Amino acid sequence: MLAIDTNIIVRLLTNDDPDQAARAKKFFGEAEVFVATTVLLETEWVLRGAYGFEKRDVLAALRAFAGLATVHFEDPARAEAALTLAEGGLDFADALHLAAAGGCDAFITFDKKAFAKAAPAAVREP
Length: 126
Prior knowledge:
Layout (H helix, E strand, L loop, with lengths): L1 E2 L2 H9 L3 H13 L2 E3 L1 H13 L5 H12 L4 E3 L2 H12 L4 H9 L6 E2 L3 H4 L7 E2 L2
Parallel strand pairs: 1-2, 2-3, 4-5
Helix pairs in contact: 1-2, 1-3, 3-4, 5-6
């Protein structure tokens, strides 16, 4: 298994550099790939921020990427939960934070309103 950097995923999903995109596509077809949670988070941020993708397009691209047979997330359940929460309206970073806190008694934030739809009983202020 080989670990990857964010730019490998970005090349695959954006095709902004045709040579690198072709190499990335070939790579994902041949290698078992480890994707750290931080790489997933940064990929969402880069696609939305630097490339101007709409949230729905980012999530669709990440879903398609997650469906590749050779892709293995650091924490598949957390990645799935974060995508589902983000599709439900949460910001992706907040969704990932909430998914990571799954075993905790509560998620503490001053931005309770942002999390209200996702898990109102488990989110509170300090």
